[in-house]
Amino acid sequence: MKKFIKVLIGIILVCGMLFLYFSKNSLSELFFGSSKKTTLVNKKTIKIRDGIRGVAQPNPFIVTEDEINRNLLGNSNNNLVGQLIYTRKHELPEAQQKLLANNKDTTQYILGYLTGERIPFEYGETAELKRKYPYYIQWDRRWAYDELGDIDVAIGGCGPTSVAMAIGGLLNDKTITPRKIAEIENKNGYFTSHGTSWNFFDFIAKEYGLKSNQVSLSKEDIDKVLKRGNPIIMSVKPGKFTTVGHIILVVAKDKDDNYIINDPNSYTRTLKIWSYDELKTEIVAMWEFSK
């Protein structure tokens, strides 16, 4: 009888969590508070989707199976959503488990992956940072589950997401989204086993009547591009941004000679101000997009 009662309580808890998930209120409000957040960087109220908060991320990254399991188990303590995810962890590919372990801002994407729930598509930034170039996150649920090669945009979409931010800002066109750019990349075979092919940048720039020029790794050349008001697609190696290669967008400089970036995989790193010394050890290659 006691065993039956425990099972019944477990079923009730799971049903309750699923009810909350599918209710009209967003998970960001139910579990994380309001979807608007005041940051020290912007000192404004920012409208943000998908319960994203800019959480602290582990340093160094969590990479081994044991580390990932311990992290997700720890996240299930006194956390109903964490408990639900942990009980279904076996349904998540390794990449999704690793993503969540390193960034709890991805929780709503992971829940959608497990439940199959999708949200209606609409235009708009992932977070309205009031920058010249829009800010999109690759695991934004509007396109996170879209196919990109043999994975999805959430896992491999840093390239098309960075391109969407660059071109969307240059043309002031909110219809240029990661979904649209990823579709073009897929259709034309520019996504490889190593991620977005660098040749895609020239191709997609021409598709939109723009120019793509490779930039040297020097601070002087980076500053010249930003002074012209143009964005820089930056390919970085494993290190401060991810455990694999990654693509980000450099969008501006501040008054203290630091750099402002749009990281499609991390709202936290997007809010951070970066010095050249911090970036120079990560850079592999860069491209200026211009009219």
Automatic annotation (TrEMBL):
InterPro entries: Peptidase_C39-like. Pfam families: Peptidase_C39_2. Residues 132-265 form the Peptidase C39-like domain. This is Peptidase C39-like domain-containing protein.
